[in-house]
Amino acid sequence: MGTALIYDEEMTRYKLLWLDPDCELERPERLTASYEALVQSGLAARCISVPVRKATDDDILLIHSEEYLEAVKKTPYMTLEDLREFTLKYGYVYFHPNSYHCALLAAGAALQLVDAVMSGRVRNGMALVRPPGHHSMRSAANGFCVFNNVAIAAKYAQGKYGAQRVLIVDWDIHHGQGVQYAFEDDPSVLYFSWHRYEHQKFWPELRESDYDSVGEGKGAGFNINVPWNKVGMRNGDYLAVFCHVLLPVAYQFCPDLVLVCAGFDSAIGDPEGEMCATPDVFAHLTHLLMNLAEGKLCMVLEVGYILYIFKKHLNLLIASRKRLAGWIQLDFSRPVRVCHGSKSTGRSGAPANQPSRTLSEHAGVGSVCARSSSQVLVVSEACRYWTDEGNLEGKYQLLVHLFHKHIKYIEPLSEIVLYLTPAEAPPSDVSTKRIKLEEKRQSGETAEGKDNISWPEPEKCVAPPVRTAVVIPEDVDCPDGCERFHLPQNACSRSTKENFESDAVTKLSSLTALVGEMEKNEIRNGLALVSDVSMALETVIKHATALKQRVLVVCVGGNGVLSHLPEDGTTLTVDIHKGALEMPRCKHYIPVSLKNGCGETSGLVQATFGLLLPLAYEYDPALVLLARFHGTDGPSEGAWQQLVGLLGGLARGHMLVLVQVRRRGSSRWIRRIFFLPGFHFRRMKRLSGSPAPSLGQLLAPLAEDLEALERLRLHLQADWTLLRTSVQESGSEDN
Known about the structure:
- It is built from 21 helices and 16 strands.
- By secondary structure, it is an alpha/beta fold.
- The chain starts with a strand and ends in a 19-residue tail after the last helix.
- Helix content is 32%, strand content 12%.
- Helix 17 (601-619) runs parallel beside helix 21.
């Protein structure tokens, strides 16, 4: 199975036929330029082409009213004046005689993608479509959208393939109110959206785009809005929201399918979004989502207006979907010149004529919220709707932070993050999309003028000749998709020969040689069965640091035995094991204690999203060492594979997995363990790109684990930016 790419030039054959500054950004070149970039990069040829089909009336009626469908059907026969008059019924949209035809193709392309993924013909895919869809409502076109492509796809997947739970992730800079309205009372669809909000001054300027719109009736708690009240969000902000809000909830929701409203006006350089996130972060976000739903991920294009940036994003996204996300490294320290800093737009909350409602009154999902004053700031935990059956407290327990009910504002997480302030009425001079466009026009700042915008280029994605190498006994068959690693002649160093017995020399030398091949990008990742994990780690770390590599060490079930590893910053060690809470003695050795060990899947997932991934992304390693010690408190098979998959997006995918086995003097015993169903053989499949199994709907973590992890996070947040949910450590309100 591979990655599907759906595109048809027919969807470019409509355009704006009259002057309208609100709609001039939506142009056919958005689609043609992105597809041409994929062709030129060679990525299109590596994908599986799936033909487009028209959506049927029954497909459209899954979301839209019959009256609206019949009205749109008449547009091909309208005169220019009739089209303009019809357009005036709706907001920020235009119609062309070919709009209806293209809208049917766009919705049909999304359905074709769902068919290909759900039937198993492909693992995942992307549909390049036009017009976009997430603003379109039941009986109204809106925001360049005619039919709601992703919402239709979600209903279609439920009806045809029995998908019980569908996750929709919307990272467009505008709130997809059409998707929210379609599922606001439906607990079978979890909708997540981050969007520029600016206290309801940014289009679509809706009160229900705020954090406290969490769904209604049975759907309460299944709508998550993260409204940005400042511009200038960077890579760290987007990753922090994923780690601390979306992923914990998504894993507890346990979707059967993930749909993405892929809008790229939330990227650096786009005049609509004014954000500073670079293209490579979207590849990492995609990689994180690919671990859900057993890899069933469908990405449907929304908008993005600057063609140069748009093409960069599409190339990186398709690369990530071809399992190259790990080749893209994020640099959190380098300046992004296009961003002129985060711009505060004042303070406001709910409109004056509408009472402000707290999260507790809504009893639903909160959001990561941020600074508007010098008050304390906190990431909320929505604690009413995600819980065990029969218990209505603590639902969404996988969210790391404690629930607070007066959170109102979203600003950059990586720069100080979350504040609590009282609500204020918005100013009367509310900015509209038209006013913003006119301001840009007067200043000479046009879309065409920004097409040549640039930033530091991410390193080119080059796949190594060998994806996965294994270090195993010679009489054990090599798993499918892997290559046995053979130690080069004369590879054993003198120091290794002097310090270890001869039967250990070959194994340790093989590990250091394998890491050397990773450093040269000849091998992506590897697995080794070892009898002494501590010794193997010490040897590999010494070799890697000699190569000036930063090493992330993740130990599972080590029980604190690795306290002797370097603490000078050349390595970051996260040791997850069974035991009581212990505070780290330095910032680069972090013991994570769980009451029942890693066998408690909910606690392990909590630790992974709340601590491990934020630490790992901020540390930015060149090599990941994942070690599993022998013991009874190890993770379940599914949890282990998920951990392997999530960490695979780091360090260009350069990861060495070390698994402790007890040989008992016989390679026959190793062979039996290695091919035991559900053991190491399946783990190798995760390294070689196969999707991880679903963890099922998770229970709430133990209260003791939640408290211990939160105390640890609070202790570490002064040193690690992506862990911060308080401004107190920064000592400043300025960016």
